[in-house]
Amino acid sequence: MTIEELHVKMKHADWYYQYSDDSTVWQKGAKAIRDIQESLKVLIQSPEGKETANKLWDLYVPKYSVNKPEFLLTTKSYIMDEKTSSFNEGQYKRLGLLAAYTEKVKTQMKDGEPLLQVPLSTEFDGIKNDATIYSKKSTSSDNYFINKFELSVQIPGRDEAIKQTFFVNNQKQENGGVADNYTLKKASNFLHGRPVYLEGSQSWEQIDFKKKLENGNYAKNRYDKNYGFDLKKVIAEYSVKVRTDEEQLSRFIQSLERGNLQKEKFVDGQGRVEELYVSPSLKTSSLNLYDQNKKPVSLETQIEKQYISKELGEKLKQFFQQKQNPDQTQKTNVSQSQVKKGAKTNQKQASEKTSAKKAPKQRNR
After folding, report:
1. Residue 119: in which H helix or E strand, if any?
2. Other beta carbons within 10 Å of 198
């Protein structure tokens, strides 16, 4: 039965048939109402169907006549099956937002609200994170898709909270690939300035606090696989204990890829063990080390305690010296060039004098 046919049937139905003493009228009315209710049951299976069915009922059915059927009175759970509920829960779970999937949110989904805006406050390492999650109902099913979430983090030492919007890619990836989506924890680590790894594109991203985009987001510096940063090879340059255990090393790498400030044990040149916090340094192809108070451990200390290989330590020393004194480095390079040039000139002059001495004298005729 089409919507137009339902309009006609409900408009001309005998909604007071139950009050008739005539059995023929009663039976005819009861059958017509049953047919209408069966059509309404079919209608509510379609998108926005329940809303339309309720509007038709309220429009044509007089008060104190036929009671509204249970399937129009109950919540959307009458329609939403277990598979759909699992899908909607999975949307929150895969992004680390499961704490926001509350009974209130479930009820809103069952009621078919088209847009949801859900707040979530949590803490990581004692630092508060305030998020707002935006999701939208599918036009063809009861599935909800998270489109984005906004995150605000009050970073210690900063006057204002750092805010960023993280957009969610819900498109199915080719060949079973993974979309480059941020979880809540990874997003928080990103706003702390630590690099995070995106499995889909096999690249690292790090926030650029010096540059803001037109949409209010901070820019991202991206380092793809062609950049050449190999975390496993970098770790091999340090005396971190987990490098000797493949299973522990794998977990250590995964934690650093999520942007965590990971605590691990380091062994110094005397065999003594110290726990330090670790984060990758992409620009220098090294690790940032922090003490128990999360204060940076200087390169000099790392070299002195033999936490870092001698080769990488010397390379980083040169890198930081050039960074601190670029003018002096340039002068040194110019000076060295002049020395080499002068040496070549002197060598040429000496060669010419030697040739002059060896040349035979011409006789006067």
Report:
1. strand 115-124
2. 18
* C-alpha span between 252 and 205 (Å, rounded): 18
The pLDDT tens digits for 311-349 are 999 999 999 888 877 665 455 444 445 544 554 555 555
DSSP-assigned states of every residue in 58-82: HHHSPTTSSPPPHHHHS-GGGT--H
For 279-315, write each residue's pLDDT tens digit. Answer: 999 999 999 999 999 999 999 999 999 999 999 999 9
Closest CA to 144 of 175, 111, 176: 111
State which H helix or E strand residue 210 sits in. Answer: strand 203-212
Residues 6+ apart with CB under 8 A from 219: 207, 208, 211, 212, 213
Q: CB atoms < 10 A from the CB of 282, how many?
A: 16
Single-letter residue type at 253: I
Q: Which residues of 264-280 are buried (b: 16+ CB within 10 A; e: fewer)?
A: bebbeeeeeeeebbbbb
Residue 3 half-sphere exposure toward CB, CA atoms < 13 A: 12
0.85 surpassed by pTM: no
User: For residue 325, what are the CA distances in angstroms to 129, 210, 219, 273, 335?
Assistant: 39, 22, 28, 35, 15
Helix (H) or strand (E) run with residue 267 in it? strand 262-267
- DSSP state string for 139-171: SSSS-EEEEEEEEEE--TT-SS-EEEEEE---S
